[in-house]
Amino acid sequence: xxxxxxxxxxxxxxxxxxxxxxxxxxxxxxxxxxxxxxxxxxxxxxxxxxxxxxxxxxxxxxxxxxxxxxxxxxxxxxxxxxxxxxxxxxxxxxxxxxxxxxxxxxxxxxxxxxxxxxxxxxxxxxxxxxxxxxxxxxxxxxxxxxxxxxxxxxxxxxxxxxxxxxxxxxxxxxxxxxxxxxxxxxxxxxxxxxxxxxxxxxxxxxxxxxxxxxxxxxxxxxxxxxxxxxxxxxxxxxxxxxxxxxxxxxxxxxxxxxxxxxxxxxxxxxxxxxxxxxxxxxx
Length: 283
Prior knowledge:
Layout (H helix, E strand, L loop, with lengths): L3 H20 L11 E6 L2 E4 H17 L4 E4 H6 L4 H6 L3 E8 L1 H6 L5 E8 L2 E9 L4 E6 L4 E4 L1 H5 L9 E3 L16 E4 L13 E2 L5 H10 L4 E6 L2 H13 L3 E4 L13 E6 L2 H13 L2
Parallel strand pairs: 3-4, 10-11, 10-12
Antiparallel strand pairs: 1-2, 4-5, 5-6, 6-7, 7-8, 8-9, 12-14, 13-14
Helix pairs in contact: 1-2, 7-8
C-alpha cells in the first residue's frame, strides 16, 4: 500500500486531471442531449458526471489494490449493488460532480469529491474545486489542508507546502451568539430555527457547504437524507479542521450505514448541542 502522503498527492493529481480533461470542457457547453433527469427535474446527471466517474474509478483502485469504488452515478444506475459495495473494505466513495444542477445552470458552486473509507469510517477525504483548481483534503488524526495549483505543479519536489485549516476559536466558544453564525439547513426539523442565525445559505452543493464549514465561513449545517458521496469526505475535512458533527440522535455518522438521517455539523460540541436543542424544541 502506498503511503498516505503518496495517496494524497495521487488523488489530488487524479482529480485535477479529470477536472481539466473532462469536467471543465463541458462547463457551460452542455447540449440538451448531454443532460438527463434521475429522480426529479432537479436531480440531474450529465455526460460530464458519467465520464469523470468512469475515469476516476480505475485510477483510484490502482492506487490501492483490492479496493473497490462506489460512484454516485453507478449507484444510481444499479441501486442493488450499493449495499455490497458499502460492505467492502477498503472502498473509495466518489461524487464526480457534486452540485450537478449548478453545473448545468452555469453556476460555479460545484466540486468533485473522493473519500477513502475503511473500518466504517472515512480515513482520507478530498474536495476539489475545478474552477479554482484548489483541493481540500484531510487524513484522520492528521488535520485538514488546502492544496493550491502551484503546489500541485511542484509536487515532484517532495515538499507540498499545503496550508493547514483550523476553525477560528471565536466561533467555537460555548457562549457564542448563534445569531452571529451562518447556517445551511436542509432538514425540515430546523424550519423554525432559521431565523435564529445571521444568514441561511443554500449553495446547492454539499461539497461547497463543507468547504465553507472547514474554513469558518459557514458555521452550522443540517442535512436530512444522507448519501455517502455527499458527506463521507466533508465530515472528515470539517472534523479535522476542529468541527463537530453527529446525527440528531447523538450517534456518530457512519458513511457505510444505510438509512441514517439528520446530520448536524457545528464548530464545537457545545454549539452542536445548542443547535440540536433548538431542533428538538421546534424553535
